[in-house]
Specification:
single chain; about 140 residues; four-stranded antiparallel β-sheet; 3 helices; about 35% strand; globular
């Protein structure tokens, strides 16, 4: 098994999910965490992002190459074989290269606004942690 995997998600879809989470008035919590506006990174028979805002109005955004039916292959990666849902709050601080700090939602908006078409939101996953980026 590789010790690292980078999951790529279409940025415009991730931004739409984050906007939905931010504007929803009801949120679902995961793993005993408080139900705050968040993206949810999930693993079932695929790996994907969704909004925890309710009602669910947007489709899940699958990682490129890891859509439905890839669960067995995911088990051989740091994503693992167990199902989960991990919240990434939209107010998570993101430090910019110029030293400023913005929220995840603001960063997604800025990244999408900088010629966002065709860009990707990345989850860089190891066995015990993950980080995110834009390409």
């Amino acid at each position: 098994m590789s010790d690292r995997i980078v999951l790529r998600f279409i940025l415009s879809g991730v931004l739409a999910l984050a906007e939905h989470a931010a504007t929803a008035t009801v949120h679902e919590g995961y793993n005993g965490e408080a139900p705050v506006p968040a993206l949810v990174w999930a693993r079932m028979d695929a790996t994907f992002l969704m909004s925890n805002g309710r009602p669910r109005e947007l489709p899940d955004i699958y990682a490129e190459g890891w859509g439905p039916g890839t669960g067995k292959a995911l088990a051989g990666t740091p994503v693992g074989g167990d199902d989960f849902g991990h919240m990434i709050p939209v107010d998570t601080p993101v430090e910019l290269t110029d030293g400023r700090t913005v929220t995840l939602l603001e960063w997604l908006r800025m990244s999408h606004g900088e010629n966002g078409r065709g860009r990707h939101f990345l989850l860089d996953v190891t066995a015990d942690s993950f980080d995110f980026g834009i390409e």
